[in-house]
Amino acid sequence: MANPGFFERQAHARRNTGLLIFLFLTAVALITLAVCLVGYLVTRSQSSALPFHHWLLSSHGLTTSIAVVLLIGIGSLVRWVDLAGGGSRVAKMVGARLIEPDTSDPEERKLRNIVEEMAIASGVSVPELYVMESETSINAFVAGYTPGEAVMVVTHGALTHLSRDELQGVVAHEFSHILNGDMRINVRLIALLAGILMLGQIGHFMIRAGFYSGGRSRNRDGRAQAAMGLIGLALLIIGYVGVFFGRLIQAAVSRQREMLADASSVQFTRNPEGIGGALFKIGIKSGYLDTTSHASDMNHMCFSESARMKFSSLLASHPPVNERINAIQPGMLARLRSRLRDTEPDQNLRQSGQAQPAARAGLSDLVNHLAEPSPLRRRGSSSPIRSSFADNSPIETTKLSSRVGTVNPQSEAFAVHLLNQLPATFRSLLYTRAGAIQLCYGLLIYDLSQTTQRERLQLVGPHPLLRVQQDLLDKLLPALAKLGEDARFPVLELAMPALRKLDPEEREALLANIQRLVAADNRVSLFELALTTFLDRHLSADAEQVVPVKYRNYRQVLPAIRRLLSLFARAGSGSPEGADKLYRDAMAGFGTGSEESRAEKVSMRELRETLEVLNRLSPLLKPAIIDACGYCVTHDGRVEVREYELMRLVADQLDCPMPPL
Amino acid sequence: MGTTVIGLIVVAVVVIYLVVIYNNLVSLRNQFKNGFAQIDVQLQRRHDLIPNLVEATKGYLKHEKSTLTQVMEARNNAVSAQKDAAKDPGDGTKIQRLGSAENLLTKALANFYAVSENYPELKANETVQQLMEELSSTENRVAFSRQAYNDGVMSYNIFREKFPNNIVAGLFAFKETAQLQLESPEARQAPKVSF
Q1: Which residue ranges traverse the bilayer (chain B) (predicted)?
Q2: Which of B107, B39, B114 is nearest to B74 (CA)?
Q3: Cβ-nearest to B148 among A109, A121, A375
C-alpha cells in the first residue's frame, strides 16, 4: 500500500538516477583521459614531442579515446542485454535455485508464507523466490525492472539462521526496495559497472598475452612486446581505479536508500525487533557471499555487504550494522547484546569478539543457538559438559585414592571447559548470596514443568534474603536446563563461597527450605540426597570444626562400611546379582567376604549417619574405603552421572577432595 | 495576442494539475477498496484451515474433546458472520459482529495451542507442524491485510484533506473513510505457540 511519503520517496529515487548518470559519465571521462595519458606516454618517443592536449586532439588521441569509450560501452551493453531478461537473469548470474510456489520443504514453505504475508502488507505482488544454496552467510536481494516481475533471492544461511520474525524483517526490507523503484537503478548499475570493470580485464589479458608470446617466438619485435605488456599493466591499473570509482558510485547511491528501506521494513511489519535481530546476527556472522563469483557486482543490492573490500568504511554501500540498528530503535543494540550474554556460553562470546575464520564453526553454532529458542530440555539429554565424561573411554584403573588431593591437567581442562560453558551472567550471579540461594532452589526444580515449579516454590517462606526471587530464577533456570545434570555439582560448588557468607540463622533457614522442597514429592532422589548432605556438611553449625578421630580400625565401623558399600554396589551395577557380586568383591578388602549379604535399602538418614561415622576414621584408613567405592563405580568402565555424584558426595563427606573422574 | 497565449497556457496547466489530482484520488480509493477485499480472502483462508487442523489432531487429543468442539463452534460462528457481512459490507453492526466472532475464534485457538503443549508427540507430527505454520501464517496475513487496508485508508484521507486536493475531492464527492478497528491490539499477534 502507498505510505505517506510514497511520492517523496519516488522523487528521491529519481534524483538518485540523475546522480548515478552524472557519476557514471564522470568516471568514463576520467578513465578515458587516463588511458589517453598512457597512450601518450608510450608513443611519445615515436612521434614528435607534442604537448598532451594537442596529442589528444590528434588522430592517435581521438582513436584511443573512442576506443576506450567504445570498450566501456560494449561491456556495459553486453551485460545490459544479458540482464534485460529481467530479474531472473540476475538470479541465474549468482547461481540461485528457484523455489516452486507449491514447495513442500518446510523451510521454503515458511519463506514462501512470509513473502506472501509481506506482499499483502505492502500491496506489491508476490515475487519469484530463489535461494542461494551454497551460501551459509545471511543475505538477500531483489532484482527486476518492474514490481510485477520482481525476483527475490535469499541465501541458505538466512533460511537456517534467522527466526521467523527476523526473516520477515529482511523480506519487508527487500519489498520496500521494490516499492521505491530502487530495483531498476540497481540492475542498470550492475551493467554500467561491468563496462568499467572490463577495462581491467582487458589489461589483464594483454599482460598475459605479452608474456606468453614472448616466450614462444623470437621473431616479434621485443619493444612491441614490452609496449603491449606495459599497456596491459596500465590498463589493469586503470581498471582497478575504475573499480574504485564504481564502488564509490555504488556507495553514494545506496547508503541512504538502505536506511530508508530499514525504516520501511519496520513500517510494514510493525516489529522493529525482527529486522534488528537479523542485523545483529549479520553483525556476528557477516553477510559475505564467499562462494558467489559476482558478489562484489551486486554489493549495493544486497541486504548487507556481500564482498569484503579494502577501505570498507569509504566504499561500503551499506551503513555499518550498529548504526542501522540504532536508527531502527535506540537501545535495541544494548538489549540484544545483553540477551546474548544471558544465554550463550562464555567462550562463544569471546570467540566472536575476535571473529577469526578458524572460529567460524563456533560462530555458526552461536547463531544457530540464537535462531531457535532452546526449549526446556529433559534430564539426560545432550549437554555440553557430558562430552568430557563420555570421552574418558578407558577409565584409569589406578586407585582413586591416589588421586585424592591432586590436580592433573585433565581435571584442569575439564574445569576450564565447564567455566567457559557457563553464560556470563549466570556465573556472576553465583558469586552473590542472593544468586547462590536461588541456585539451590533452582537445582531442585529446574527439570519440572512450570506449574509444578510454581507449586514447589510456594513452600519457600517469605524472608528478605531467602525468599524466592523470580527474576534471578528466570535467569538461572534456562541455563541449568541447558547445561544438564553433569554440571549440577560443579555449579553448586562454585556457589559455596557465597553461601558461606550467610550467618548461622540464615543457613538454618536455607537448609529448612531445601528440606521442604525435597520433601514435597515424598521421594528423595539421589541428587536430592547428595545436595542436602552436601549443604548440611558445609553449612551446618559445626561445619568448620575439626572432626576428632574416633575409630582406629575397621572392625569398629564395619556396619557403616557394609551399608555404604551396599549402596555403592547397587548403584554401580544394573542387576541385583551383579550388585551382590560387586558387594562381595568390595567387602573382601576389609577382611570379610563370602558370607556377607548386601543390605537391600539404605535410607537417607542411615546414609548420613554412616558417613558421619566414617568421617571419624583415622585418615590412614579412609583411602581403602574410597577405593572400594571407586571400584564399584568404575568396574564396568563407565561412570554414570549418578555414580559420579555419589562418589563425590562420599569423598566430600570424608574430607577427601577428589578431582573429576 | 501574447497575453492570450500565456493565459491559455496557464489555464491548460491548471486543468492538467487538477486532472492529476483527480486521478490520484481515484487510484488511492481503489487501493484501499482492494485492501478490504483482501481481508475477506484471508479470513476465508483461516476458516478453511481450521477443520484440517482439528482433523489432524483429533487422534492425539482424544481426551480434549471440549477444546476441539469449542474451536469448531467458534469457527462455524465466524463463517456465518463473514457470509453475513459480505452481503452488506457497508453495515456497521455486521462488521462488528464479524469482529467479535473472529475474536472468539482467536481465543479458542489460543486455548487449543495451550492444550496441545502437553502432547509432545502431537507437536512432533510433521503434518501438524505444517498446519500450525500455515495457520500462524494465516493469522499474520489477516493482520497484515487489515494493516494494509488501514494504511491505504490513511493515505487516501491524508491526500484527500490536503489543501488543493480537498477542493477537487469536494467537487467530485470523494468521501472520508473510516479505518477498521475489528479487534483489540493484543489480538493482532498470532497466537503464540510456546509459553
Answers
A1: 6-25
A2: B107
A3: A121
